[in-house]
Write a structure and sequence with these properties.
By secondary structure, this protein is α/β, with parallel strands linked by helices. The protein is 33% helix and 27% strand. The chain is globular and about 70 Å long.
Length: 504
């Protein structure tokens, strides 16, 4: 099966519906099919082996995605924040390529070997003006659909290989065909080079929903679009949600049409989602956990799960608000120890997953899929007796203090539970006596005060003394990448920063 078949099916059923909207510019589903066909002809004529887009959310993204599927070449959305040598390294890996870029960047990109550079506005205009002549598309499910460069939080970005079978499996297993009403609209604000950006397009298309693009994210702009376009569905990463909530509270804004809001891409503190649910009581929240290599979501905490946990007096049920829910029907999850033994409920280890949508493959032929089809996520976590999965961060982030494995997440949740705390990161640093000791970096809300001793006391009272930070440092902000992942390596590197308030 090919991604183009998803678009063709929905266009046959709802061709006159608006498929995608960017500002006042729109494409219906029929127009999107025609534009994809014309762009596929452009792509084939270029002789390129891949199609790349270096642009914010624009009409070039969905046209390029489906044109690539039609032409039988991988689609590669690139991080538009990159420049210079970082961008050069990525382009070299995907050449020869057809590169669609923001007009103001074309001059600086031209001249690269084996690369045809086209301004995004000209690409879209030519696609809209062309005729539908692309013919049949390949139905080989093993063809590569998308190459997505990983975020590189722990090393150089690698291009994850997502084949048509992976993405189609995810869509068919999680979205009902044509299930959206004609008035439904989804707000896409996550960048197109994030797996959630690709998943948002594909899932909305298969549901027949109007996609409203926000070129670049701002909380105020997001709220304005959600109100003016009567947005019914949206997906955000946790850092986005925090900013949206803050902006809504400052402006006294509401979102009466927002029925469904999913979040994922990074760990969500329980205090943040509780605050969001209070502010948007009529909105159904979904926590979606997945990785680039898993073709997006593999577990979900449903709206019903959120509501049940929020009101439950049973601590086991209540704590599920901090979980990422249970596995999708076609996904199997194991928790394993360092020796590879499968662990039971409540036992902490590394998360392994298996299923049709799991790729685990990288450009160049390397793979993290073992002989039995299992993918090692390198995320730590545990499950309760009913299968709800709790994340504890990257395995590499686990703090080993005196031989005891300590999750940064459980300490961060306690610190973030104080109203004065806006953000927090906990890391381990080398220590001769203990192996590692705990250091907490804390950002306070404007106008609020706390001391390091206050933070230490709070953790000691709610956990135990072995979890208490040996040091607390205060910052005005913490480093995140553009998709909302905390950059712990930068936090550690900042330990010696000048002017930090420190408690020993």
């Amino acid at each position: 099966m090919n991604l183009m078949l998803l678009l063709d099916m929905i266009a046959s059923a709802f061709g006159d519906r608006v498929a995608v909207q960017n500002g006042s510019d729109t494409l219906t589903y029929t127009e999107l099919v025609r534009a994809a066909a014309a762009a596929a002809d452009q792509l084939r004529a270029s002789g390129a082996q891949r199609m790349a887009v270096l642009d914010v959310n624009s009409l070039a993204v969905p046209i390029g995605l489906f044109a690539s599927a039609w032409a039988g070449v991988p689609f590669v959305p690139l991080n538009y924040r990159l420049a210079g040598s970082e961008l050069d390294r990525l382009v070299e890996q995907i050449s020869p390529c057809y590169l669609v870029a923001e007009p103001e960047r074309v001059a600086g990109l031209s001249g690269r070997p084996n690369t045809t550079v086209v301004p995004s506005d000209e690409f879209v205009a030519a696609a809209r003006a062309g005729g539908e002549t692309a013919g049949d598309w390949s139905m080989d499910a093993d063809d590569i659909a998308v190459l997505l460069f990983t975020s590189g939080t722990t090393g150089a970005p690698k291009a994850a290989v997502l084949r048509h079978k992976h993405l189609v499996s995810y869509i068919l297993g999680s979205v009902e065909f044509g299930s959206a009403d004609e008035s439904d609209a989804t707000l896409v604000s996550v960048p197109p080079y994030h797996v959630a950006g690709m998943a948002s397009i594909l899932s909305s298309v298969y549901a027949g929903r109007r996609i409203v693009q926000q070129p670049t994210f701002s909380a105020e702009g997001w709220i304005e679009l959600a109100q003016s376009e009567r947005i019914s569905n949206a997906m955000v990463v946790p850092t986005m949600l925090v900013r949206i909530i803050d902006a809504m509270e400052r402006a006294g804004a509401d979102l009466p049409h927002l029925r469904a809001l999913s979040y994922g891409g990074a760990r969500m503190p329980s205090a943040v989602i509780e605050r969001a649910m209070e502010l948007l009581p009529e909105t159904g929240f979904t926590n979606a956990y997945g990785l680039t290599e898993t073709s997006s979501t593999i577990t979900v905490l449903t709206p019903d799960d959120h509501r049940a946990a929020a009101v439950s007096e049973d601590l086991t049920v209540r704590r599920r608000l901090g979980s990422v829910g249970t596995a999708l029907p076609d996904v199997t999850i194991d928790i394993r120890d360092e020796a590879g033994n499968v662990l039971g409920p409540g036992e902490r280890g590394e998360i392994f997953v298996r299923g049709t949508q799991i790729s685990g493959e990288y450009l160049g032929g390397s793979t993290r899929i073992d002989a039995d089809g299992w993918f090692r996520t390198r995320d730590g976590g545990w499950r309760d007796a009913d299968g709800y999965l709790f994340l504890e961060g990257r395995i590499d982030d686990v703090i080993v203090r005196g031989g005891e494995n300590i999750s940064p997440g459980e300490i961060e949740d306690v610190i973030l539970g104080d109203d004065a705390v806006a953000d927090c990161a906990v890391v381990g640093v080398p220590d001769e006596e203990w192996g590692e000791v705990i250091v907490a970096f804390v950002v306070l809300h404007e106008g609020r005060t706390m001391t390091g001793e206050d933070i230490q006391r709070r953790v000691k009272e709610r956990l135990r003394s072995s979890r208490m930070p040996a040091r607390v440092e205060f910052r005005t902000e913490l480093p995140y990448n553009e998709t909302g992942k905390l950059l712990r390596r930068k936090v550690r590197a900042d330990l010696s920063a000048d002017g930090a308030e420190r408690t020993q």
